[in-house]
Amino acid sequence: DASIRADVVCATWNGGLGGIGCRLTAAEGRVVAFQAGGSLEGFRVRQQAPITSNGGCVRADGADLTLVDVEMEGCSAGNGGALYAAQAVPLVTLERVTITGAEGLDGGAISLQAGVDLVATELTVTGTTSARGALHARASNSVQLTDVVFEDDTASLGQGGAIWIADGDLLVSGGLFVGNVADHGGAVHAMDTDLGFVSTLFSDNEPNADPAMGGELGGAVYVEGGSLVDIAGVYQLNEAEQGGAIYGYLADIDLQGTTLEDNTSNVNGAMALFGGRIELTDVVFSANTGVAGSTAALYTESLDNGSFLADVQIVGNSTTGWAAKLRSATGATVEVDRIVVQNPASGNGIDNTQGVFRYRNALVTGHADVGIGMLLVGGDSALELESCTIAANGGNGVQYLANGDGQLVFRNSIIADNGGLGISEVLSGPGVETHSYAYTSVWGNGNGAVGAAPVSVDGMFDEVDPQFVGPGSWQRSIHDDGDPLLPNPGSTTSERGAYGGPTPLLP
Predict the structure, then answer these.
(1) CB-based burial of residue 473 (10 Å sphere; 0-12 exposed, 13-18 middle, 19+ buried)?
(2) 168 forms bridges with which residues in the sheet?
(3) How would you classify the pairing of strands 8-11 and 2-5?
(4) CB under 8 Å to 36, separation ≥6 — which residues?
(5) Beta pairing, strands 234-236 & 91-100
(6) Are strands 221-224 and 239-242 parallel, antiparallel or unpaired?
(7) What's CA 235's distance to the chain center, in Å?
(8) pLDDT averaged per 10 residues, the chain (length 507)
(9) How far apart, in whole angstroms, are the C-alpha atoms of residue 239 and residue 266?
(10) What pLDDT score does 493 carry?
């Protein structure tokens, strides 16, 4: 053990300093600065007096740096409260490093200058204060984090309570982000960066309500430009004005096996994306809350071609507005396969605006009061339903608000037991609206099958009882009344509705 001066103490320092190219800089209040690279293992640093230069406890400059089994407490500096890696450092490696209560501007705990890569395993960063990010990566950085914890970290300027990164790559495996605070990305703020999260939990991240930030965007993650890929992640109890969990702007977002639950937003859902593409596979949105009539679960705007949703559940969310809104760029096509939209405490189901929306094996049911099941809005738009069930919604089953040419296509589907019309359309401008029906049941809707007669009808629907097996169940006792061109798996017969056709919902 060695006391360097009254306000800097090094304890349990294993090994000497010789031959690793470092120097003590007690006069600056910093423990150690590396100029020729090296490795330190097994020491604890506590700093009591802040410094104004960069790197409060460790500064690296000129070569690779490795820290193993290191604890840093109360470190404070200009940038990089605990650790600062200058631009000439190729790689920083951290193993079992803990940083507590650090303070700095860009990087309350760690600041990486342009081109510095970071590989960290079992890194824990708690209780830090920064302007932008407990971990700040300036440009062209590759950051790989495994089994890391960022908890109770705050960004006072409102960008990335835990991590701020631009023009780089970030991959987190087995991460835990809890209780971090920032207006844009409570946990992570990324610009023009490719983000990857694997088996990572984001919980209780929230904004700090800084009016200068112009709104609270992304309770857990804010991504602008670049992309986000999340595999088997969980986003819960996060909060923001827009995008209670995730907010994207001109970004591509790919979620696989991800769960978003119990997040809160004032507008635009647990996940909000403005421009770009979404790919959602095996994703669950549940128990999210949209305040004051907003969207509860998912909101998109200006979606690009190539967007798709498959095996998605939007269930148990709460709002007087919409459970989900899909708004695409003009002329773009959005594909949706096997989706369940069931939100008894939600006013309406799913809003589709300004594009071509193709649904296969969708179940939309149970939206309260006068809630609409499925809505299509906009001129030159189309809603195509194949092997879908739209049932037991409080208002109209399917509604089209048209101000131009548009098309509704129903094939092998069931529109039944809704409180309003089965199918409603409102024309607010010139144009031709076309309905196309094949092997579709429109049955038992409170105000009748179809509202105003469409301008053009191709084919007809039938008003025959679909014979659901029981109250609240949308499986059927009939399995051979569907389109023969859409047979059930392994069968020569076809069944109408979400549980029929080649790619049925599982019971």
Answers:
(1) exposed
(2) none
(3) antiparallel
(4) 20, 21, 22, 62, 63
(5) unpaired
(6) unpaired
(7) 8
(8) 33 32 40 56 72 86 87 93 91 96 97 97 98 94 98 95 98 99 97 98 88 76 98 98 97 99 95 98 97 90 95 96 93 96 89 94 91 87 96 94 83 96 81 84 92 65 91 91 95 96 93
(9) 9
(10) 94
Residues β-bridged to residue 169: 142, 194
How long, in residues, is the chain? 507
Bridge partner residues of 35 (DSSP): none
pLDDT of residue 405: 77
CA dihedral 382→386→390→396, nearest 10 degrees, is 30
Retrieve residue 462's tokens.
Answer: 């039938």
Q: 271, exposed or middle or buried, with CB in 10 Å at 0-12, 13-18, 19+?
A: buried
User: Across-strand partners of 224?
Assistant: 191, 249
How far apart, in whole angstroms, are the C-alpha atoms of residue 56 and residue 81? 5
Cβ-Cβ contacts under 8 Å for 333 (sequence gap 6 or more): 305, 355, 356, 357, 358
Phi, psi of 211 (to 5 degrees): -60, -25
Say what the pLDDT of residue 212 is. Answer: 52
364-369: long-range contacts, CB 8 A cutoff, minimum separation 24: 364/388, 364/389, 364/390, 364/391, 364/393, 365/341, 365/389, 365/390, 365/391, 365/392, 365/393, 365/474, 366/342, 366/392, 366/393, 367/323, 367/343, 367/393, 367/394, 367/395, 368/344, 368/394, 369/394, 369/395
pTM flag (> 0.85): yes
Q: Measure the CA angle with vertex 52, ends 49 and 55; round to 5°.
A: 85
- Nearest Cα neighbor of 362 from 376, 353, 373, 370 is 373
CA distance 395 to 372: 5
List the one residue out of 436, 392, 440 whose CA is nearest residue 416: 392
pLDDT for res 421 = 93
10 Å Cβ neighbour count for 42? 14
Q: Tokens standing for 208?
A: 């700090």
DSSP secondary structure letters along 87-145: TT--EEEEEEEEEES-B-SB-SSEEE-TT-EEEEES-EEES-EEEE-SEEE-SS-EEEE
